[in-house]
Amino acid sequence: MDERVNENTTENNTDRFLTIAMPKGRIFDEALGLLRRAGYDLPPEFDDSRKLIIDVEEADLRFILSKPMDVPTYVEHGVADAGVAGKDVMIEEERDVYEVLDLKISECYMAVAALPSYDAKTDIAPKIATKYPNLAAGYFREQGEQVEIIKLNGSIELAPLIGLADRIVDIVSTGRTLKENGLVETETMMPITSRFIVNPVSYRMKADRIDEMVERLEQVVEGGSMR
Ligand code: PRP
């Protein structure tokens, strides 16, 4: 096991700490900014560290830094009391967690895209590449369209360019990745923002602390920054 993890997991103070699962990557900085504006004094090691567990002793907070897609898993299993997860991940993962607050950060949307030459009408067995197989399958089922889903782990835009798939289902933020790879959006599916999610048991056992955090975050989200 990674020493950095081992070092941190030897102390098992789960009751003392409120444990929050944070998604590494594009959401991380915005989520961090939100927590800081909500009055949580997060040390600089959050900004420049490879640690996977960071304790903020003064506030009795423990942060675990995970892959975005895994945040709901940690929260569902109760190893994190709460977490920050994109709506895309929530739809894909269908975990048994409470979605408590729309943090309104990392705004983007889910879309279907293809090469401009692609003609859906003549395609009898469409292949769809995506990081979100459940979400995509649900969407096309609703549309009444039969498709084959090909699960990839990233660089989804590559799939139509090299003939692996006809269309992709992916998030669009600035639209740059689609544009620079010569793809066009064919359908807009749903808007995506990040959510604050909570483990149902933690919500009962640590109600006061979780409510306080939700209220502080809500104030910032609704425009009344605490700092
Ligand atoms: C995401 C998404 C798109 C891109 C969209 O990928 O999968 O590829 O960002 O952003 P844009 O509209 O601003 O260009 P990410 O960078 O998370 O990496 P990935 O390809 O490994 O999933």
UniProtKB/TrEMBL annotation:
<keyword id="KW-0547">Nucleotide-binding</keyword>
<dbReference type="Pfam" id="PF01634">
    <property type="entry name" value="HisG"/>
</dbReference>
<comment type="function">
    <text>Catalyzes the condensation of ATP and 5-phosphoribose 1-diphosphate to form N'-(5'-phosphoribosyl)-ATP (PR-ATP). Has a crucial role in the pathway because the rate of histidine biosynthesis seems to be controlled primarily by regulation of HisG enzymatic activity.</text>
</comment>
<feature type="domain" description="ATP phosphoribosyltransferase catalytic">
    <location>
        <begin position="67"/>
        <end position="218"/>
    </location>
</feature>
<dbReference type="GO" id="GO:0005737">
    <property type="term" value="C:cytoplasm"/>
</dbReference>
<dbReference type="InterPro" id="IPR001348">
    <property type="entry name" value="ATP_PRibTrfase_HisG"/>
</dbReference>
<keyword id="KW-0328">Glycosyltransferase</keyword>
<protein>
    <recommendedName>
        <fullName>ATP phosphoribosyltransferase</fullName>
        <ecNumber>2.4.2.17</ecNumber>
    </recommendedName>
</protein>
<keyword id="KW-0067">ATP-binding</keyword>
<keyword id="KW-0028">Amino-acid biosynthesis</keyword>
<comment type="similarity">
    <text>Belongs to the ATP phosphoribosyltransferase family. Short subfamily.</text>
</comment>
<dbReference type="InterPro" id="IPR018198">
    <property type="entry name" value="ATP_PRibTrfase_CS"/>
</dbReference>
<dbReference type="GO" id="GO:0003879">
    <property type="term" value="F:ATP phosphoribosyltransferase activity"/>
</dbReference>
<dbReference type="InterPro" id="IPR013820">
    <property type="entry name" value="ATP_PRibTrfase_cat"/>
</dbReference>
<dbReference type="InterPro" id="IPR024893">
    <property type="entry name" value="ATP_PRibTrfase_HisG_short"/>
</dbReference>
<keyword id="KW-0808">Transferase</keyword>
<comment type="subunit">
    <text>Heteromultimer composed of HisG and HisZ subunits.</text>
</comment>
<dbReference type="GO" id="GO:0005524">
    <property type="term" value="F:ATP binding"/>
</dbReference>
<keyword id="KW-0368">Histidine biosynthesis</keyword>
<comment type="pathway">
    <text>Amino-acid biosynthesis; L-histidine biosynthesis; L-histidine from 5-phospho-alpha-D-ribose 1-diphosphate: step 1/9.</text>
</comment>
<keyword id="KW-0963">Cytoplasm</keyword>
<dbReference type="GO" id="GO:0000105">
    <property type="term" value="P:L-histidine biosynthetic process"/>
</dbReference>
